[in-house]
Every structure is written in C-alpha cells, then in structure tokens.
Predict the structure.
Amino acid sequence: MLNKAKIIVAEDENIIAKDISKTLTRLGYEVLATARTGEAVISKTRELNPDLVLMDIVLYGTMTGIEAAEKIMNSFHIPVIYLTALADNETLQRAKITEPFGYVLKPFDERTLHSSIEMALYKHKINFQLKERTKELEEERNKSDLLLRNIFPKEIVAELKEKGYVKPREYSMISILFTDFQNFTYLTSEMPPHELVNELNEMFKNFDAIIEHYGLEKLKTMGDAYMVASGIPKECPEHAERIVKAALEMQEYLNKRNQISKNKWEMRAGIHSGSVVAGVVGKRKYTYEVWGKTVNLAGIMERQGQPGKINITGVTLQLVKDNFDFEYNGNIDVAGNGNIEMYFVTAKQTKQVEVTNNL
C-alpha cells in the first residue's frame, strides 16, 4: 500500500483489541488507537479522523457499538465495519439499519477482514466522489437558474424548465416604456470607454431597482436605450400607473445624481399602452421579446419627447389621468396608427398606488 489506511479499533476486550491491531498492521494498515467504550471511540474519531473504524457491537459501558457507529457515520462521515461474534437475526437487523460498510463475524480470517476493509474504503471513496460531484452539479444548476432569473421573468423560467420552450402569448393591454439619453453620441466620444461603461452600469442598476420595486419587467438595454414593460408576463390592472410612477422616479434619481456628478445625463422617456405579443426567441441565445404597434408607439413617444420629461400617448393618459397632472405636447401622424395625441406628465401621482412585487 502506498498510503496506509488509518483505522481505529473499538473492542471492549483488550487482548482481542491487541490481536486485531497486530493483524491490521500485518495487513499494511495503521492502527491509530483502540477504544473500549462508545464514548471513547467517538472521542478518538473526532480527534484522530481515521479512514475507517472497526466496531464491535458489544462495548464496555452503556453505549452499544451500533449507537456509536450511527453517531460516527452521521457526524463524521467515516465508514464503519462491524466486527463481532454476535450473529442473531435481531442484532443483525439492528446493525443493518445503520447502513455499515461491512459486517465481519468473529472468528475472522485475514483474507475476509482485508477484503472487507478494502471494499469499505473503496465504497466510501466512491460515495464521497459522488457527493462532491452532486454538489458541483447542484452549484452549477443554481448558477444556471440564477442566470435565467436575471434574463427572464420567473414565470418564463418555470415554463422553460418544465416544457423546454415558451408558448407565445398575446396581452390585450399592457404598458411599454422606452428611455434614452440626450447627446449620448457626443458623451461617448468625450468619455473614456471604462468611464462610460461604469456610468451606464451605475445608472442602469438604479433603474433596475426602481422597476423591481414596482413589479415591472426589464426587457432589454440597447446602448443607452432602456426598455421596460408593465403587465407582463403577469397581468395587473394598474400597469400604466406603475410604469409612469417608475419613469418619474428614474428622472428624479438622475436629477439628484446630476447635482453631484461631473457627467450630466438627461433622459427622454416615452410610454404607450396597448396590446402586444410576447415570447422567447432564439436557439442558443434566448431573448424574451415583445412585438406589436404598442412597442413601436412607445419608441416614437420617447423620440418625440424632451430631456427630463415623460412623454405619453392619449391612450396611456386615459388610464392614469386621475392620478397625475399633464401638459399637452401636440399631435403626431404615425403611419398605420393615424393621429396620435401626446402629453407630458408634469406632476407625481396624488393618489397612492398599491405596489406589490410581481417578480
């Protein structure tokens, strides 16, 4: 043996313990200690950390070898082989319940003892490797689940894991928010790349916290553009109120940040409410997408807006008019949609909107 397995012998008779120890040494093992009581073998196992314990079922004192073995295997995860003269069925059944790694009857021969020890050590090694691999796989699965939850809504993750695909769904009324930053191209040309990434990361992290608070769903970022939906994948009647409130808080956050930051970011925001179709697309790189006129009109509202203001359509206005103040922003003719009225939200809501996190 290149590496001697370390063994503790639990035997209430000193003469037998010495004989077993000599046999084990002859077979190439290292006997760390012997013990006569259950308490002693548990203590020595804790102290010496053996590779295996040879356990007599009958020990000196009140604790049996079966009780000591159960404690050792559960607490220290060390294999135990019973080595005993007791062979009645009741004792065997009690011993089997503890799931030992072997059972050798006295008087024993060296070949049987040696093969039992080697088999127990091998079985324990394989079990340990399986547990470690299972642990690694569980950690990888948790990482994958966390990544999926960061990409998709939890309802979509559950459907993907259950079915392997997501069935497209039509929503009759939701709200979409688009934002971007004024003079972004100029700022990017004047700012070092790492500084630009840090700035966007800081602002988008704060945006993420705001939309999470209101139970909204972040769909994507595209450069400086930020896209949010309210009312998907879990529908809610106050989707428009929530998304307007979130947009106002995003503007408020930027206003406060601009007071202390050397880089001044001015955000345009556009919102429209209507029907969409939502689903997961892609084969290797999945994305959760929404389609429809509602998406296009929300983007147009953002482009027709002004820095520091929330530009909404007349449709969204009808959904939130009792909770906000507004300023008319004119009309725009949109191909396929006719004449669209636009309004700036000029004040925060006056009536409290109950918010519950849908994520």
